[in-house]
Amino acid sequence: MKRIALCVEYLGTNYCGWQRQKHCVSVQGELEKALSNIAATDISLHCAGRTDTGVHSVGQIVHFETDVDRPVVAWVQGVNTKLPGDIRVSWAKVVDEDFHARFSAVARQYRYVIFNRDVHSAALHNRVTWEPYKLDVNKMHQAAQDLLGENDFSSFRASSCQASHAMREVQLVSVSRKGDMVFIDIQANAFLHHMVRNIAGALIEIGKERKSIDWIAELLEIKDRRASAPTAPASGLYFVNALYPEECGIPQVALNEVLWQ
Questions:
Q1: Residues of the chain with pLDDT under 50
Q2: Is 42 among the residues known to form the active site?
């Protein structure tokens, strides 16, 4: 048996998230169907991090096992011919048998993209979150620094979150602007359900000067989702990278490849 890792890009607009489901079209379902076609046998995938309905990816890492002998190019170019245009495999490689897309990852990285202009862009529809109110990015960045370290993120988890606890370690976080684009970049050892979108919602309130810079620290202390901001839309969220030990040999996506920063 060979273990194959893939890097997958997708626009999540037309899918009910990553995970295969019976009642709707998913990214996992489409990709497994395409891989199974090339392999001429059923293929089952494991991913680094499941994404919700409408969430995108430029660096989702998945793996599967197969005893089918195919050249690596078949798992990229061959599979891409069987996929819809909003899903693409960007690379494939044979990995060690103990590699696991989810459990070998030591951190994940997301980017939340806000188009900050009084009129929305038709070309960016469903690819970013539109915010017409001019955001104070400096205040957003300053507030976001209170997220760093290991904290209880109960104020930023969905009510449907099934994680056994809300402790997570945020390793990097920044808010920056390029023209009309505002980027929230965050890296953590793991994420709770809707955690990034709930953080983005709170930071947007601070950027609109409806809340003070200290509000993030207050929310962490309160540990109550009901006290926080509404969940930001899925359209602005991108899964950028899963990070692995160097010996795994898994390439990373550069942030400048995400919405052209």
A1: none
A2: no
